[in-house]
Amino acid sequence: MARTATPLLPPRWWALLMIGLCLGFGLTTLTRLPTWSLVPVAGAWLLLAYRLRWGAPLAASEPVRVWPWSLLPIALWGVYVYLADSFGEVDLGAVFFHLQAGMSGHGGGGRIVAAVLYTLGMLLLLAAVTWLVRVDHRWRRGERIAALVLLASNPMLYGIGQRGAAIIIEEGAWLDRQYVPPVLLEAPSSPPNLLLLYLESLERTYADRDRFGDAYAPLTTLGERAVVFEGVRQMDNTGWTMAGMIASQCGTPLMPAGLLHDTQFEPLGQVVPGVDCLGDLLAGHGYALTYMGGASTRFAGKGDFYRDHGFSRVLGREELSPRLEDPDYLNSWGLYDDSLYDLTVAEIRRLEAQGRPWGLVNLSISGHAPNGYPARACRERQGEYDGVDILYAVECSAWLTRRLVERLEAKGLLENTLVVIASDHLTMRVSAWEQLTAGQRDNTFMLIGEDLAPRRTRVQATTMDILPTVLEAMGFTIDWHRAGLGVSLLSEEPTLAEEYGLETLNARLKEETALQQRLWEGLAPQAPSSASPGEASAKGGESPPIP
């Protein structure tokens, strides 16, 4: 008589195992538990399931064909865990902005593969929960309550609800009252050039040798002849590349257009058209401005932002890759930094030949999460790269930056030039995540200029303070030492972070829409308003902001 084949595990245990693994993965992702904790968490779950006989109740009954109420709440938690695993901290502003600004030209192919795997995992999890609800009446009784708990506890839904509530708050204008439209009251007699180097995700936290060794050492060496600011924190809605550049060039967090945008399902044609930024100010004083980055300028509205704000040349992957000697020397985002910096030198030569002040903004790629993109020059210097260790990429980015500055100086291309070196934002989840999040984190920000005495200074600041600081370092006189929400760190005026605290600023950001309306003026319907003190300052330039 033939034997009937039996599965290695009954369906009950496959379902419980899947739930246990997902629970363990979620906990290790959202907390500081080490990855190996997934196994004991799943084991504890299976032990509890065995003792309570989940999926095999003593009073067994026929399966009931029902669909659990908790499927949608579980799926939404799956989205949140995926975002947390991808980026470390979930920033809904980044999600909304990228959906509206467009994501063509991105280089995150690895995240697409991860998204497919997450989706398959979630489908298996939902199937496991459905099976248990149908065969175990105790799960049917409790899962409706579980669905409500899952919905109420999801931080993503809480954030959406908070932003939705802000729309109906009439008194949501505190941040807007702090905003001082940037005005250049007086220009220096010999306006300096500006070289602004954004180092992708290269936060100053890496300077801690006890945690990260010598990964940041090339920048530490460069900082010995710079004004180095320590304590430049990250406010909400400034924690991704476009938001970081807008915070440091416009003095404001990037509040996505959201419901203010007239055509919700079309890409944005302009980026923060309602405010003047660094490029607008310098272009108005005769500067020739260039943006250069290895990645596509189509991604996240980057090209639109620079073209709309005073930059006559906007050069990304599409424009720069044809100039490479080796057309195949590209990563998934675009050019490696050694190639980008070679082309940067050539562009500065071109700008110098024009005989008028120039500004060049440059965005690197080496330190991009999760694993970085170390250039060929770094591999020749640092040896074999394992493809995971972010500290290898950090050292690469720091060394290439120092080499670029020294190379430009040797060629005489930095005379009467302010060099600004800044991280665009704090890094997202990387291999050194546990060490990074073990203490307070801050951004890289340093200035190198002929008239700036080297020093290190501790501040309570945000990246919004970079705009007025750069303007004053260039010799411009600005209104009240302020521009946007930023305060010059070269002045004695207190920053908003110092005066009110980062927590207060973040709380206000979630409660208000007036500043958001200002940013998107021209795309957004005009809100009924009375002139705020900040607006009065824009018209007359005579009144300081009123808290």
Largest sheet: 8 strands, mixed
Average pLDDT number: 86
CATH-defined superfamily of the largest domain: Alkaline Phosphatase, subunit A
Radius of gyration: 26 Å
Main CATH class of the largest domain: Alpha Beta
CATH topology of the largest domain: Alkaline Phosphatase, subunit A
| Helical percentage | 40-55%
* Class derived from helix and strand content: alpha/beta
Q: Work out the helix count.
A: 23
N-to-C terminal Cα separation, in Å?
88 Å
**Beta-strand share of residues:** 5-15%
Strand order of the largest sheet: 5-4-6-2-7-8-3-9
- What is the overall silhouette? elongated
CATH architecture of the largest domain: 3-Layer(aba) Sandwich
| Count of extended strands | 12
Count of domain modules: 2
Low-confidence stretches: 164-168, 260-265, 524-547
EC number: 2.7.8.20
InterPro entries: Alkaline_phosphatase_core_sf (IPR017850), OpgB/LTA_synthase_biosynth (IPR050448), Sulfatase_N (IPR000917)
Main location: membrane
Keywords: Cell membrane, Membrane, Transferase, Transmembrane, Transmembrane helix
